[in-house]
Amino acid sequence: MYQISRSIYRELEAEITEGRMWGDGPTNHERVLRACEAALHRLTTDRHYFARPSRTLFNDIRSYFPMSAQLHVYRVVDRYLGFAAEYLATRPTAAMELTGQKLDCRATTRKGTPCQRMPLPRNGYCPSHQHLAETEEVVLAA
Ligand SMILES: [Zn+2]
Fold it and tell me: Rounded to two decimals, what is the model's pTM?
């Protein structure tokens, strides 16, 4: 994930406008890199609640690029975040390996405690709680 945020940054680096937007503080280059890292971190740890990662990251960094570069910026962001999302979706343990945190099912048990079973990468629920993912899709589709 760290490599992906670096790759996004490297592809866009040349187009970042120079200078600092607010006097002191980080340069535009640093801000873009931090925003990429934050987006990838969130994608890794909170993927199921991160609805539109490409749009979010693009909105975070677009002001550091000239108007003429906006489309390219969006395409680069979207391409790399697509890779990242696919990687996480196909490797159940990837997020755990990357963050060192154990993944738990998103559901709450009947006793009111968080379910601690291993979730499926597809939707973040364990096999016994798959029905919750289905209800969620219905709600989202409505
Ligand atoms: Zn569960």
Answer: 0.71
Compute, in angstroms, the gap from residue 5 CA to the centroid of ligand 1. Answer: 31
What are the pLDDT digits (tens) for 80-92?
999 998 888 887 6
Indicate left, alpha or beta for 9 from its phi (over 0: left) and psi (-120 to 50: alpha).
alpha
Per the model's pLDDT, the better-predicted residue between 61 and 99 turns out to be 61
Q: How remote is the CA of residue 120 from the centroid of ligand 1, in Å?
A: 10
Tell me the CA–centroid distance for residue 7 and ligand 1, in Å: 35
28: tokens are: 């535009």
**CA 43/CA 95 separation, integer angstroms:** 9
27-31 long-range CB contacts below 8 Å, 24 or more apart?
28/64, 31/61, 31/64
Distance in Å, CA 114 to ligand 1 centroid: 8
51 CA distance to ligand 1 middle (Å):
21
